[in-house]
Design goal:
The complex is a heterodimer.
Chain A lengths: L9 E2 L2 E2 L5 H7 E5 L10 H5 L1 H5 L4 H14 L4 H4 L9 H12 L6 E5 L7 H18 L2 E5 L3 H7 L3 E5 L2 E6 L1 H6 L4 H6 L3 H14 L3
Parallel strand pairs in A: 3-4, 4-5
Antiparallel strand pairs in A: 1-2, 6-7
Chain B lengths: L1 H5 L1 H35 L1 H16 L2 H12 L3 H25 L3 H9 L4 H31 L12 H10 L2 H29 L7
Classes of the chains: A alpha/beta, B mainly alpha.
């Protein structure tokens, strides 16, 4: 969307600056807080946008739409023909995710996708993202201001401050050893940090 | 009214010529206005000056514009066509540009993020979302063209205006009336058809 002003971005080892921007965007799934579903298209057509651009055969698109709706836990028969206007915030966000991953992108970029939904829906969407990310085996780059959301979702956590990386590692490593005051303060006072560390450890697969 | 029924064949013929003239003018006007509207929507500064120019054309008295065009191009179909297309531009370009500017930023953003080229985004996302406003512009342009096209008779291009001019020349008010009523009826029908299309184009906004 925006070309880097400094540094390099590589995807599968290739500098993205050398790639065609449109093809590059098409190969990265993209989900944003505003969702941006196309209001004049049904749920099914929204999800089918990129496969249609890639000129997949109709049957394959229809099958993929149903598969994706099931994946994001929306009943295809009920939701396929709805318009975005008739969806709740959480449902719209799920459709947005389904649309982003429709053509099996090489990576999924999520920029504060759950910023606009309430805490309860947010928690269930987070669970869903974990489940989907595992099912897809796709890299997800997830941007958030919510520390607990980051701890909950991340395999690898990157803390940024004013455009610079200040700490990088697994959630447990980052909390256990913040390495600088900024990161330490980010995770709260000693007590809260201890609690978060405990929770992050518990979340590890045994 | 008596004239209308006594000469139904002739009236129908003139009405058909009238509709044909307006249809061609509307198509040509739209083909010119669409790219202008896209440019005006993308660059507000260009849009403002463009609409100022088109607005100025819109205010030229129609009879005067026709008289000027006749001295350039002579009598006939082309002359009226140019006049109708020129008058249609203001409404069409304004509505197209406004429609495109009203497309939700999130939808345009998502289109780019998903990898639609700017052309694909324009055709698949922005134009369909601007369609209600575009249809509104077409409706107003069509209705005003139907009224204006009565002047076609003045430059020998036929249409319902022929009845009005004959009536004025021969002192037969029923002919004037017949031509006027037909033109009004046409305008009302076209208006209704476009309103129907606008309603269909906004169906997605209705709650299911």
């Amino acid at each position: 969307m925006v070309a880097p002003t400094a540094g390099r971005i590589t995807l599968d080892g290739v500098d993205t600056a050398t790639l065609d921007p449109t093809a590059l965007r098409r190969s990265i799934g993209y989900a944003i807080q505003a969702v941006g579903l196309f209001p004049h298209m049904t749920v099914a057509r929204n999800i089918a946008v990129v496969p249609e651009l890639l000129e997949w055969p109709h049957e394959r698109i229809a099958a993929r739409v149903d598969e994706l709706l099931a994946l994001v836990d929306l009943d295809p028969a009920r939701y396929r023909h709805r318009f975005p206007r008739d969806l709740s915030g959480g449902e719209a966000q799920r459709v947005g995710v389904a649309r982003a991953i429709a053509a099996r992108p090489r990576a999924l970029l999520m920029d504060e996708p759950f910023g606009a939904v309430d805490a309860i829906v947010r928690a269930s969407l987070q669970d869903e993202i974990l489940r989907i990310a595992r099912a897809l085996a796709t890299t997800v780059l997830f941007v958030t201001h919510d520390v607990d959301e980051a701890l909950r979702l991340a395999d690898r956590l990157v803390v940024m401050r004013a455009g610079k990386i200040v700490r990088e590692g697994t959630p447990v490593d980052v909390i256990a050893d913040p390495q600088n005051d900024y990161v330490r303060d980010l995770f709260g006072d000693d007590e809260l940090r201890a609690f978060r560390l405990q929770r992050a450890r518990r979340a590890l697969p045994v | 009214m008596t004239y209308l029924f006594a000469h139904a064949d002739r009236v129908a013929q003139l009405a058909a010529a009238h509709v044909a003239l307006v249809a061609v003018a509307l198509l040509v006007a739209f083909a010119i206005a669409l790219p202008l509207g896209v440019v005006a929507a993308r660059d507000p500064r260009v849009g403002t000056s463009l609409l100022a120019v088109l607005g100025a054309i819109y205010t030229i008295p129609s009879l005067a514009l026709l008289a000027i065009l006749v001295t350039w191009i002579g009598l006939g179909f082309t002359t009226v066509l140019i006049a109708l297309v020129a008058y249609g531009q203001f409404v069409l370009v304004r509505n197209i540009a406004e429609g495109l500017r009203g497309v939700p930023a999130a939808a345009v953003d998502a289109a780019r993020g998903l990898g639609l080229s700017s052309r694909q985004s324009l055709w698949r996302v922005e134009c369909p979302l601007a369609l209600p406003a575009i249809l509104g512009g077409l409706r107003i342009a069509a209705v005003s063209m139907i009224a204006l096209a009565t002047l076609a008779a003045y430059v020998g291009a036929g249409g319902l205006g022929v009845l009005i001019f004959e009536g004025l020349a021969f002192g037969q008010p029923q002919r004037v009336l017949a031509g006027s009523i037909c033109a009004m009826a046409l305008a009302i029908v076209i208006d209704a058809l476009f309103r129907l299309a606008e309603r269909r184009a906004t169906r997605y906004r209705a709650q299911a």
